[in-house]
Amino acid sequence: MNEHVLQTNGLTKKFKHSFALDKVDMSIRKGSIYGFIGQNGAGKSTLIRIVTGLAFPSGGTVELFGQSSQRELVATRKRIGSIIEGPALFPNMTAVDNLEAHRLMRGIPGKDCVARTLRFVGLQDTGKKTAKNFSLGMKQRLGLAIALLGDPEFLILDEPTNGLDPMGVVEMRELLKKLNRERGITILISSHILSELHLLATHYGIIHHGQLLEQLTTKELNDKCQQYLHIKVNDPGRAATVIENKLGTTEYEVVSSGIMKLYKHLDQPGKVSTLLASEGLVIEEFMPMGEDLESFFTKRIGGVRHG
Ligand SMILES: Nc1ncnc2c1ncn2[C@@H]1O[C@H](COP(=O)(O)OP(=O)(O)OP(=O)(O)O)[C@@H](O)[C@H]1O
């Protein structure tokens, strides 16, 4: 069995004077939630459009569920649900009529999936209200319901939280988590805000100027962004004993050349330094370190953080 739902090899898209995608090798494992992060214009939509068959690449290949020929790709794309460039809604129709229209257009048998899917996204009680009168969050949930018709195994969402208020972001996140957890659906979700993906994604791909700079797991991202007290002392062995005995924690690491990383008591740096000094240790360096998510991202793409 192929473990990857999506694999692109050297995927390239050239518009007149520039590369929207430049030899992208992306891998998305079955069962994962892949956060695709990049600034506006980085190339996210271009990749998503190619994967879903809305655009053709200039070079490279797309492999979906282990299949890569044009004929097989057409068939495997039926296993994908997507929201691209906003949800595909009929503004003058109710939620039920929207789903029913999409069900008929796509030839999905059985009416009962309409009520079931609306219940799943929490829109079962919207009655006669038409989609144009829905809040943005409701529109996005209706878009998700449309994408879920046909029980896809792979869900592709292009900036689904763009413009949503914080509650809308939380609602969408919880729905996606549930789909992943309960139905094992693999998800590719793009955003230009890393913190919006952070409580959701299990894997990340960072794209910048059409190049996939890095793919990493949540654990790798957390390790890179973890906050700690950087301490350089003359005797790290003794400092470790003091930290364990007097501060009651083992959440520290001794790294090279007498440098320690203490992951606890970040809010009490004075207490830590006073304690070490009172035990006769010579403190050569002492400072809080680590990065927050957005500064990790801006640094990674070579930018300067503003604000
Ligand atoms: N049809 C097109 N013709 C010419 N250039 C295009 C076309 N579509 C996209 N581009 C360019 O390709 C680059 C990548 O665009 P893309 O829409 O994929 O970025 P994105 O990461 O999805 O950003 P956004 O969040 O703004 O949609 C941009 O420089 C864009 O201007």
TrEMBL record:
Record Pfam families: ABC_tran (PF00005)
* ABC transporter domain segment(s): 6-234
CDD domains attached here?
Answer: ABC_BcrA_bacitracin_resist
Q: Which GO terms describe its molecular function?
A: ATP binding
**Keywords noted in UniProt:** ATP-binding, Nucleotide-binding, Transport
What family does this chain come from, according to its entry? Answer: Belongs to the ABC transporter superfamily.
Q: What is this protein called?
A: ABC transporter ATP-binding protein
